[in-house]
Amino acid sequence: MTYFDLQPEEVTPKVVGIVGFDGVAALDLTGPLDALARASLAGASNKRSVCYRPVILGLASKRFVSESGLPFKAEATLATVSLEGVPLITSYTRSALTGWTVAGGIAENRHPPGRGPERRR
Q: CB within 8 A of 68, min separation 6: which ones?
């Protein structure tokens, strides 16, 4: 049996994190959030079951501003340190169906001062 064989009444919404940061294009954040929030399955009695629970994750802080000035507040932040002591921004997820875990991380200071993307005002 696969996830898609389950009846809507049996489906637990999957949590999907969308990462936001200062200077993000608002549509790049809100578009996927809206699409995931609307996804649902119809049951035998025409009862709809929600497929996903999208959440906003902040890179360095819970509050950030899009390139157009729209403020956002994240549910959580992604911060950790590598074995070498380098501050990282990370994310991970574990599949309830397969038990697999997937993780990824990037260095917080990946751009030298004055050489990274600049925020528009």
A: 25, 26
Q: Is residue 89 part of a domain?
A: yes
Report yes or no on 113 lying in a domain.
no
Q: Give the pLDDT confidence of 37-96 residue by residue, as tens digits.
A: 999 887 666 777 888 989 888 876 678 899 999 999 888 776 677 778 888 777 666 666
Phi-psi region of 101 (alpha: psi -120 to 50; beta: other; left: phi over 0): beta
CA 83 to chain CA centroid, nearest Å: 24
Is the residue at 99 inside a domain? yes
Q: Does 59 map to a domain?
A: yes
Please tell me the pTM assigned to this model.
0.56
Tally of domains in the chain: 1
Range of the domain at 39: 13-107
Alpha-carbon distance of 46 to 103, in angstroms, equals 37
